[in-house]
Automatic annotation (TrEMBL):
Protein name, UniProt field: Pectinesterase inhibitor domain-containing protein
Coiled coil: none
PANTHER family to which the protein is assigned, alphabetical: F14J9.2 PROTEIN, PECTINESTERASE INHIBITOR-LIKE
NCBIfam families reported in the protein's UniProt record: PME_inhib
Family stated for the protein in its record: Belongs to the PMEI family.
Pfam families: PMEI
Keywords per UniProt: Disulfide bond, Signal
Keyword Signal applies: yes
Organism of provenance: Cucumis melo
Domain Pectinesterase inhibitor: residue ranges: 11-126
Domain of life: Eukaryota
């Protein structure tokens, strides 16, 4: 959806801080209702997208765990399963705080998410030899 100029400026300000500007901008535009959103509205979109992605990734990891027999990969996936459960739960709690307009509570709940997610990513890039991260599909 096309955004009004103020909303477009907000989206650009946010997305310029991200590695993937185009993905960020596209995500906001696809989720925008009515063409206008303040920072609170954009925060709601970001929270919902993060929760949806974390939930999807958590489910995918569980699916992979059921089909993997290699013990090293299985252990790495267990780390990822635990990590994405933390991320999913953090954003779920953050959304609850957001709905109650408890923005400080939202930030506190979600603060753990990047480190938890990184624990999954890093396990596939550490030595001995890097393993192919099956989450990069």
């Amino acid at each position: 959806m096309a955004a009004d100029s103020e909303t477009e400026d907000r989206i650009n300000r946010i997305c310029r801080q991200m590695e993937e500007f185009a993905f960020c901008s596209q995500t906001f535009h696809q989720s925008l209702k009515g063409g206008s959103a303040d920072y609170i509205g954009l925060t709601g979109i970001a929270n919902n997208q993060a929760y949806t992605k974390a939930t999807s990734t958590f489910g995918y990891v569980e699916e992979l765990l059921r089909s993997v027999s290699d013990p090293t990969l299985k252990n790495a996936l267990i780390v990822c399963e635990n990590a994405y459960k933390v991320v999913k739960d953090a954003f779920g709690e953050g959304i609850q705080s957001f709905v109650q307009r408890d923005y400080k509570g939202m930030l506190n709940a979600e603060r753990i998410a990047p480190r938890a997610q990184a624990s999954c990513t890093s396990i596939f890039s550490t030595t001995p030899p890097p393993k192919q991260n099956p989450l990069w599909r």
